[in-house]
């Protein structure tokens, strides 16, 4: 059978590894595969003393077999000039003697057919290749030092000991009788020779082709593909049946990879450490599909075009920022150039935002400014386009014809809440740069993004981003502001908006937030006071947890709003408890985005402005309670024609007219009206996109009324958040000022405050007053720490008496 056969050079070997000089390292010796090709370096039993041919005079080596090609493993031992500046200088002549007396003489030139090892960065030979293939980096493990490199996924093959050069026989049917090595310059060695009868070039010269992997048992899992004479990218899961236009897909049972290989290469497929089968790449390339034991491989592309894409707003006719996903009919992704086909490798790691990409389930999207370019496969292509909650997601099948270079898509706005006075924002985002946030927020039609500096042990993030002022784009229609999330693991976290100068320390009292062995140097109340002194806004982050000092912030009026990151019974129960205890608490939504598996604004705040939009106006509207949070549904609420944040004043018990609506690009389950924590009206949506409630509600005392909407589905972000919306309350005063006091709620809040104070007094680590001067300058640090807790307890006592 035709193949590759190494030549035994042991009879002419006259040098050992000491000829390499210095530390030769672990150079391949004996029977080895170089780039998947068999070589014999020295004798069968590897001998470091006699393993190379170092020609000092013309030296013949017998071959005695037909060969289409001859592959030589060799290396230059010393450059012809310092720093390799003798490029093109002849090192040797290789003379190939063929049957019939004909000889072919080939000059072997520095930096062309041969080079020193190591060659120096950027000085690889032009006509030879390294003895190792390009390769994938370890997929799920590695050293900390390789963490940055690991993001590249793949690395170039670097010479382990030799360069490989291929000579093509002009008469492939003739026997190569011998090769004569004639030195003409600097010293060099010949380590091995292999002949080939295969009708293929021994070095891969065809680009990678996408391949679909389908296990015959119908199960998914983590696939791995290895190629002995070529390369394969990491296999990635393809999406399954749970497929949402513009909003992601769950994992399916098949995967895809890209393979570049010789026809003679063997492809091995494993899944979860179980080998499923092997197949010859030439069979896959010839037939378009081949079985490999328990898995099949299917070529997924017949050709491709470089295409310029424009996404147009159907109303304005102008390119519109959005996020896009392209895939072939087989599901293989083809994302715009500069973006990723699959983001973050399903590693579940935070602090991972790359390239303006986001992944929902097993589908990755690229944020674009309305235009993009890159490869698209010929034939049928499925396009997904999305832009926040106010545009109808686009799912469109297009056909890319040979020669096509342009594609235009159109998306349609179905709601314009800004024109109705409602301006959207994300309360809580990490790690994005300002330009990155601006790209992504415009792609999600999100008017405000609060990117938050903070500390994670010894990691400080977004330090360089702080400017103390808003960054605006599109004429001021989109704003990014760098704020802070100040954090303490027991007492709580808080979001600080609109800072003009830092409020430090960012975190306190040790891990997970502050440094190892840290002490309690600040309280949330102190951070809130310093924020308010600048005119900033204080939000209790991911309310109510960590559930300690947020009770103090609310009881003392230091919390301007509370934040909900996801719908949960625990969060709503806690929120209703505070409202029933008489605290007017605006509700905001945010993502706490910490990776590319969460889009900005997936949970967002809509704030109702009665003035021109600006960041300061948006914060004022939040503080006034004119808000609703949305994880998709767009809700409205009026009570006697008053909106969230307003107070309806009744002279005594009576009725109020409540009108609530919801519209959504996602299927809905229901719309509900809530009074004092109890559902008092419901409209079933049954998977539709709209619902409405109009009710006359009886009011017998001071009350609050809100509405909420539940979607039929959950989002496919890494949190699996529910499609959900909830308004801030409309307050109803019945015969006087609005007040409410729930004795059980007050007792609960008091318990939390007392417990947090006990933590400060008896558990938290504190620095000695004798050797410490804190930023507050007071001599008794403990008295300073517990002061806001005492204030909260006095305020709760006063509320109880009322």
Question: What tags apply to this protein structure?
Answer:
17-stranded mixed β-sheet, 6-stranded antiparallel β-sheet, elongated, Immunoglobulin-like, 51 strands, 802 residues, mainly beta, single chain, 9 helices, 6 domains
Please explain how this structure is put together.
This protein has 802 residues and is mainly beta. The chain folds into six domains: 4-196; 209-299; 304-413, Sandwich (Immunoglobulin-like), CATH 2.60.40.10; 424-630, TIM Barrel, CATH 3.20.20.140; 631-734, Immunoglobulin-like, CATH 2.60.40; 749-801. Helices cover 12% and strands 40% of the residues. The chain contains nine helices and 51 strands. The strands form ten sheets. The chain has a 17-stranded mixed β-sheet that branches. Strands 14, 16, 17, 18, 21 and 22 form a six-stranded antiparallel β-sheet that branches. Helix 8 (743-763) packs antiparallel against helix 9. The N and C termini lie far apart (98 Å). The mean pLDDT is 96.
In short:
The chain has 802 residues and is mostly beta strands. It contains nine helices and 51 strands.
Name of the CATH superfamily of the largest domain: Metal-dependent hydrolases
Gross morphology: elongated
Oligomer: single chain
Strands, total number: 51
Which CATH class of the largest domain applies here?
Alpha Beta
Radius of gyration: 35 Å
CA-CA gap between termini: 98 Å
How much beta, percentage-wise?
35-45%
């Amino acid at each position: 059978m035709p193949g590759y056969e190494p030549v035994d050079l042991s009879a002419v070997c006259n040098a050992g590894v000491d000829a390499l000089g210095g530390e030769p390292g672990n150079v391949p010796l004996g029977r080895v595969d170089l780039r998947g090709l068999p070589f014999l370096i020295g004798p069968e039993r590897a001998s470091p003393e006699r393993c190379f041919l170092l020609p000092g005079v013309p030296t013949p080596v017998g071959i005695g077999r037909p060969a289409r090609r001859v592959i030589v493993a060799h290396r230059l031992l010393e450059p012809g000039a310092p720093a390799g500046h003798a490029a093109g200088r002849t090192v040797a002549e290789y003379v190939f003697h063929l049957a019939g007396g004909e000889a072919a003489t080939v000059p072997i030139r520095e930096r062309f057919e041969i080079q020193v090892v190591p060659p120096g960065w950027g000085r690889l030979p032009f006509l030879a290749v390294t003895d190792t293939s390009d390769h994938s980096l370890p997929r799920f493990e590695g050293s900390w030092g390789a963490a940055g490199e690991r993001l590249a996924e793949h690395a170039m093959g670097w010479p382990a000991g030799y360069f490989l050069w291929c000579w093509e026989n002009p008469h492939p049917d003739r026997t190569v009788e011998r090769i004569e090595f004639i030195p003409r310059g600097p010293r060099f060695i010949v380590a091995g020779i292999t002949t080939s009868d295969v009708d293929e070039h021994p070095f891969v010269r065809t680009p990678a082709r996408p391949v679909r992997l389908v296990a015959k048992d119908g199960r998914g899992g983590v696939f791995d593909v290895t190629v002995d004479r070529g390369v394969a990218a990491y296999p990635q899961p393809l999406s399954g049946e749970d497929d949402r236009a513009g909003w992601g897909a769950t994992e399916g049972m098949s995967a895809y990879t890209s393979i570049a290989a010789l026809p003679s290469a063997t492809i091995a497929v494993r899944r979860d450490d179980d080998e499923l089968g092997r197949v010859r790449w030439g069979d896959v390339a010839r037939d378009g599909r081949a079985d490999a034991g328990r898995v099949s491989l299917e070529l997924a592309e017949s050709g491709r075009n470089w295409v310029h894409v424009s996404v147009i707003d159907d109303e304005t006719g102008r390119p519109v920022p959005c996020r896009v996903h392209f895939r072939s009919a087989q599901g293989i992704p083809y994302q715009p150039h500069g973006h990723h086909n699959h983001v973050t490798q399903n590693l579940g790691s935070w602090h991972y935002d790359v390239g303006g990409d986001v992944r929902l389930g097993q589908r990755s999207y690229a944020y674009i400014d309305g235009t993009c370019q890159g490869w698209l496969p010929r034939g049928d292509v499925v396009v997904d386009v999305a832009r926040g909650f106010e545009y109808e997601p686009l799912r469109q099948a297009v056909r890319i014809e040979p020669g096509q270079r342009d594609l235009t898509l159109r998306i349609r706005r179905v709601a314009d809440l800004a024109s109705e006075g409602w301006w959207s924002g994300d309360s809580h985002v990490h790690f994005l740069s300002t330009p990155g946030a601006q790209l992504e927020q415009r792609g999600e039609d999100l008017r405000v993004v609060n990117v938050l500096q903070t500390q994670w042990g010894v990691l400080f993030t977004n330090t360089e981003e702080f400017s103390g002022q808003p960054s605006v784009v599109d004429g001021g229609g989109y704003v990014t502001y760098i704020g802070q999330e100040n954090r303490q693991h027991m007492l709580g976290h808080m979001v600080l908006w609109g800072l003009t100068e830092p409020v430090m320390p960012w975190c306190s009292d040790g891990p997970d937030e502050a440094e190892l062995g840290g002490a309690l140097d600040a309280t949330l109340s102190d951070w809130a006071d310093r924020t308010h002194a600048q005119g900033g806004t204080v939000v209790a982050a991911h309310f109510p947890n960590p559930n300690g000092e947020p009770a103090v912030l609310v009881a003392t009026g230091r919390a301007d709003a509370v934040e909900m990151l996801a719908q949960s019974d625990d969060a709503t129960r806690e929120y209703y408890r505070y409202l029933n205890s008489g605290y007017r608490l605006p509700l905001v939504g945010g993502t706490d985005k910490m990776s590319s598996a969460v889009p900005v604004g997936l949970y967002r705040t809509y704030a109702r402005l009665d003035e021109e939009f600006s960041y300061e106006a948006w914060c004022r509207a939040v503080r006034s309670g004119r808000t609703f949070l949305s994880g998709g549904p767009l809700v409205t609420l009026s009570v006697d024609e008053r909106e969230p944040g307003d107070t309806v004043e009744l002279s005594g018990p009576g009725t109020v007219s409540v009108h609530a609506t919801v519209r959504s690009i996602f299927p809905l389950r229901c719309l509900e009206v809530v009074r004092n924590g109890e559902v008092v009206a419901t409209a079933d949506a049954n998977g539709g996109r709209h619902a409405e409630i109009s009710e006359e509600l009886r009011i017998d005392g001071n009350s609050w009324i809100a509405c909420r909407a539940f979607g039929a589905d959950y989002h496919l972000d890494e949190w699996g958040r529910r499609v959900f919306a909830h308004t801030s309350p409309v307050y109803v005063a019945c015969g006087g000022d609005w007040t409410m006091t729930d004795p059980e709620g007050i007792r609960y809040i008091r318990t939390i405050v007392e417990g947090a104070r006990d933590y400060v007094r008896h558990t938290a680590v504190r620095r000695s007053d004798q050797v410490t001067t804190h930023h507050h300058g007071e001599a008794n640090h403990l008295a300073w720490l517990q002061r806001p807790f005492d204030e909260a307890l006095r305020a709760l006592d006063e509320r109880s008496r009322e």
